[in-house]
Amino acid sequence: MSLREKTEWIAVDWGQTNLRIWVMGAGGNLLAERSADQGTGALASDGFEPALLAMIEDFLSDGKTTPVLCTGRAGAAGGWVEAPFQPVPCAPLTHTSFVTAPTRDPRIAVSVVPGLSQISPAPDIMQGEETQIAGFLQANPKFDGVLVLPGIHTKWVHISAEEVVSFQSFLTGELYALLARQSLLRPAIALSGWDDAAFEDGLGESISRPESVAAKLFGLHAAAQLSTLSPQAARARLSGLLIGLELAATRPYWLGQNLAILATPEIGEIYARALSLQGLTAPVSDVTPLIREGLMAAYESLIAPQD
Q: Which residue range(s) make up the domain with 264?
């Protein structure tokens, strides 16, 4: 049997900068996976179908319609199709809220997973993280506590009874990228390398005196000019200062709570270290397989017979 014949459905994670697909066979068998720099940020609404077809053409058969399930920014305003946010508290994924995307090619039928929204205690949204959460809850259905999802826009998510109760988002990753690559600090910050002591110092100073962080950020520039701080140490210190601001603001979330981190291993360990310095233990789960697990759960709910 050919790969085209074996393909049952296709899972898609479509972020702002990257597109990732998993080709799925019967019984949740992974047949193939691919990724490309074809994020939603560079696409008009009529560019999504051609971009996707370029990735999955090898797995489609004439005379057969293959289901495609998308998470991420494909459902954002200005994306492929706008998928209305689901208000919390709610389960991270509900098949009745999936939205059908318009397609011209009869070989695909595309459904888009909506993000979650919150009005109170403060307006907030997530798109894509709900699928990561669903994947985590597949393996940890009794988890009650707070999930930390670091990234460009880090999420702190309160979970209870397999529902997202509330969440809070932070621009920490985006602030780091802007400061390290587009600001006065750019020459001072290394692209790689690390210094544990510099990270811990920045973190502690930021948590204890968050009002001083703007001054300490300029201090990174001054230290570079005076050659008193290496670019690698400056990179770690910048991370510590920004993550410290986040921990100071989320104290009500992590005090006395069960914690788990969903992230790529590198960034997950940085957050785990930051939390350990506050006396907290937070195991790290690699987020990439969780996205696929969440989409698999969504697909099963989509095709299951309904009462």
A: 128-291
